[in-house]
Amino acid sequence: MVKIGVLALQGAVREHVNSLQSPGVEVIVVKKLEQLNDLDGLVLPGGESTAMRRLIDKYGFFEPLKDFAKAGKPMFGTCAGLILMAKKLVGQQEGHLEVIDMEVERNAFGRQRESFEAELMVKGIAEDINAVFIRAPLIKSVGEDVEILSKYNGEIVAVRQGQFIACSFHPELTNDVRFHQYFVEIVTETKTKCLNV
Ligand code: GLN
């Protein structure tokens, strides 16, 4: 059994909870700091990254979230969650949690394409993932330890660095749970490895 939390300060929480439901997974809606303690993995949902950051600071989540990543626990960020995980943000002095070595541009698809859907090949998951983009960020560049999982029109939209994954679209808004299953596998493997050390 693994315990996976969804950070529930702001954004699309319920959809992630539904997508994570599966045998062997206990899903926790994380509203209080103490709930981070016994989690094996954490989802940072989509929403609005600046609003989410404000609430992270207000409720004292900033250092505990950084420590969670430093402890090697898996994290999965979608859209605003991806923005929170980026080491660098275009036009900003600093990133937020800075857990994935990538540079991200917010709202990069522009107004005309505020939201759209596409079928994407995602490495290690499937060739036909239905991706929903909503005021989506783009990954401009990645460090050498970062694996590119998917591109849309030549632009990077999903990545993995060790036990951390992030995508600029919203797998939780579709009925396709394969991206979430992929995360559950990472969480399960990481937990098994830790128990065996
Ligand atoms: N554009 C939003 C931001 O900057 C992210 C949009 C989303 O999560 N759907 O936070």
From TrEMBL:
Q: Where is the active site?
A: C79 (nucleophile), H170 (charge relay system), E172 (charge relay system)
Mention any one GO cellular component term assigned to this protein in its UniProt record. Answer: cytosol
Q: Is this entry keyworded Hydrolase?
A: yes
Q: What is its EC number?
A: 4.3.3.6, 3.5.1.2
Q: Which reaction does it catalyse?
A: aldehydo-D-ribose 5-phosphate + D-glyceraldehyde 3-phosphate + L-glutamine = pyridoxal 5'-phosphate + L-glutamate + phosphate + 3 H2O + H(+); L-glutamine + H2O = L-glutamate + NH4(+)
InterPro entries per the record? Class_I_gatase-like, PdxT/SNO, PdxT/SNO_CS
Pathway, per record: Cofactor biosynthesis; pyridoxal 5'-phosphate biosynthesis
Q: Name one GO biological process term.
A: pyridoxal phosphate biosynthetic process
Q: By its UniProt entry, which Pfam families does this protein fall under?
A: SNO
Q: Name one GO molecular function term.
A: pyridoxal 5'-phosphate synthase (glutamine hydrolysing) activity
Summarize where L-glutamine binds, as residue positions: G47, E48, S49, R106, I134, R135
Keyword tags:
Glutamine amidotransferase, Hydrolase, Lyase, Pyridoxal phosphate
Q: How does it assemble?
A: In the presence of PdxS, forms a dodecamer of heterodimers. Only shows activity in the heterodimer.
Which PANTHER family does UniProt cross-reference here?
PYRIDOXAL 5'-PHOSPHATE SYNTHASE SUBUNIT SNO, PYRIDOXAL 5'-PHOSPHATE SYNTHASE SUBUNIT SNO1-RELATED
Q: What does this protein do?
A: Catalyzes the hydrolysis of glutamine to glutamate and ammonia as part of the biosynthesis of pyridoxal 5'-phosphate. The resulting ammonia molecule is channeled to the active site of PdxS.
Family to which this protein belongs: Belongs to the glutaminase PdxT/SNO family.
Its protein name is Pyridoxal 5'-phosphate synthase subunit PdxT
Source organism of this protein record: Anaerobacillus alkaliphilus
